[in-house]
Design brief:
alpha+beta; single chain; 8 strands; about 160 residues; elongated; five-stranded antiparallel β-sheet; Immunoglobulin-like
């Protein structure tokens, strides 16, 4: 298996020189293992919502500590707002915020109760395609009003 290590030249040259007269301990082995470990698996997620033109639309959830201003959706000038982000695999709860009002996505089929007596949308991020095929699909994804208001992950 051919694996590459992404280390800068500066990081390599700053490593301490090895003294061949001293035995090698586990610390360098542990550091090397952490360097070559597989990075966290993530997937592209598109949050999409129809709202009035010129609205301020955000999405908040467990993926951004429920920060209502952390992720603003962009308007495509037809009332469709969207944002594309990479999230690690896992389950998330979220809600949209439109002009300060917290809303569920109308096309979200899975919801759970929250502490405020309402419900949160549930988003399950999982690997659906090999990474290279996934990126090709993402780059060719057509713009269409017929697509669901949010899609997670791409390809479903």
């Amino acid at each position: 298996m051919n694996r590459s290590i992404s280390k800068s030249k500066d990081a390599v040259t700053k490593n301490p020189k090895r003294n061949p007269s001293k035995p090698v301990g586990r610390d360098p082995e542990i550091r090397l293992f952490k360097d070559v470990q597989k990075p966290e698996v993530t997937e592209w997620v598109i949050f999409k919502l129809h709202a009035p033109p010129m609205a301020k639309v955000y999405v908040a959830g467990t993926f951004n500590n429920w920060n209502p201003a952390a992720l603003r959706l962009n308007d495509n000038n037809t009332g469709t707002y969207s944002a594309t982000v990479r999230l690690p695999m896992g389950n998330y709860e979220y809600k949209f915020i439109v002009n300060g009002e917290w809303l569920n996505g109308p096309n979200c089929n899975e919801q759970v109760p929250n502490a405020f007596g309402t419900t949160n949308n549930v988003l399950v991020v999982k690997r659906t395609t090999p990474p290279k095929a996934h990126l090709r699909a993402f780059s060719r994804m057509p713009v269409s009003e017929d697509r669901p208001q949010y899609t997670s992950p791409l390809g479903e």
